[in-house]
From TrEMBL:
Coiled-coil segments: none
Binding site for substrate: R53, G54, A55, R90, Q201, N252, K253
Keywords from the named record: Amino-acid biosynthesis, Isomerase, Methionine biosynthesis
Enzyme class of the recorded protein, top EC level: isomerase
A matching Pfam family: IF-2B
GO biological process: L-methionine salvage from methylthioadenosine
Similarity annotation: Belongs to the EIF-2B alpha/beta/delta subunits family. MtnA subfamily.
EC number in record: 5.3.1.23
An MF annotation (GO) of this entry: S-methyl-5-thioribose-1-phosphate isomerase activity
Descriptive protein name: Methylthioribose-1-phosphate isomerase
Catalytic site positions: D242 (proton donor)
């Protein structure tokens, strides 16, 4: 992604070869600020407090967190302790555990003296792999948008939920990778951007990066999507996912399930973009088995914004004394998903469909 002509990933090694730089996403869309992570504790805080977010980027940050941990204590006990602390930061996104497992698999067989260099090397490789996977799934998803354009011969309207773009990954994005690939190929399109309460990742992050890239888009209230679908104003939905079961159930930002129900009722194709590390092959039933993160109620009762003087401030939107609950995710059953867009192609949201693309998973 280019910002004012300069290409950025969302995470990269600092010039000193030790620290890890990230974009503080809590400061977007109004400020672009980078932070250097210097310790495993910094990486854990960045994940927990959502300086970084999005399943693939969480995994990449955790991988670099293990590299930073190896610098602090490269013993078996030290690495396993770091694994547990990083794993506890956010429970829903499976990429976190996947990346941590990848790091331990590489590091534990090595002598302690070789572990720091190997950790940085594997973390960098995880970032490169994520970028390549998302670029590939973007091509497969762009073909779906192109087919819609060829059939309808007009601008194609895509509805997305939350942020599953470049800011949620190392580069390109999941749900938005097809949008960027199609847009760059000259296919006329427009994106409906759900605001995505309570943290407003759609309004603050998706709109921000679409704006940077020059993609036509409109921010809408979360409850507008069904109305747009009823009136033929949505050609397809593409969302991301933090964990997808082996049977094709999709766990994504709260509100995704409602969009899928509306899409089903209005015969609007509902696709999910995901790199393969987001598939949890150990889980069959998403509703019963995926842990749903419950975050601070303050995210629901308060909101950040820029006032008339340009100052970013927080205000309370609920009455004093009114309790709130803040579930971070919901599960969309496979029966509501038209297809899964992966780096290996598009498949049915089913065990058979996923196994067809990933036969090595046994």
């Amino acid at each position: 992604m280019k910002i004012n002509g300069t290409a950025f990933r969302t995470i990269w090694l600092a010039k000193d070869g030790i620290g890890v730089e990230i974009i503080d996403q809590t400061r977007l869309p109004h400020e672009f600020v980078t932070i250097t992570l210097r310790s495993m504790a910094d990486a854990a805080l960045a994940i927990k407090d959502m300086w970084v977010r999005g399943a693939p980027l969480i995994g990449a940050t955790a991988a670099y967190g293990m590299a930073l941990a190896a610098r602090e204590d490269a013993t078996d006990a030290g690495l396993k302790r770091a694994y547990q602390l990083l794993h506890a930061t956010r429970p829903t996104a499976i990429n976190l555990k996947w990346a941590l497992d990848e790091m331990l698999a590489v590091l534990l067989p090595l002598p302690e003296t070789a572990r720091v260099a190997a950790a940085y090397g594997r973390a960098a490789a995880i970032c490169d792999e994520d970028s390549a996977q998302n670029a590939a799934l973007g091509e497969h998803g762009a073909a779906l948008i192109k087919a819609q354009h060829q059939a309808k011969q007009r601008t194609i309207n895509v509805l997305t939920h939350c942020n599953a773009g470049w800011l949620a990954t190392v580069d390109w994005g999941t749900a938005l990778a097809p949008v960027y690939k199609a847009f760059d190929a000259g296919i006329p399109l427009h994106v409906w951007v759900d605001e995505t309460r309570p943290r407003n990742q759609g309004a603050s992050l998706t709109a921000r990066e679409l704006n940077w890239h020059g993609v036509p888009h409109t921010v809408i209230a979360d409850n507008t999507g069904g109305h747009l679908m009823q009136h033929g104003m949505v050609d397809l939905c593409i969302v991301g996912t933090d964990r997808t079961t082996r049977n094709g159930d999709v766990c994504n930002k709260i509100g995704t399930y409602l969009k899928a129900l509306a899409a089903k009722d209005n015969n609007v194709p509902f696709y999910v973009g995901l790199p393969s590390p987001t598939i949890d092959w150990t889980v069959a039933d998403g509703v019963k088995e995926i842990p749903i993160e419950e975050r601070s109620a303050r995210e629901q009762t308060h909101i950040f914004g820029k006032d008339a003087d340009g100052k970013v401030t927080e205000v309370q939107v609920t009455p004093d004394g009114s309790p709130a609950v803040n579930y971070g995710f919901d599960v969309t059953p496979a029966r509501l998903v038209t297809g899964l867009i992966t780096e290996r192609g598009v498949c049915a949201a089913s065990y058979k469909g996923l196994r067809g693309l990933f036969p090595e998973r046994g």
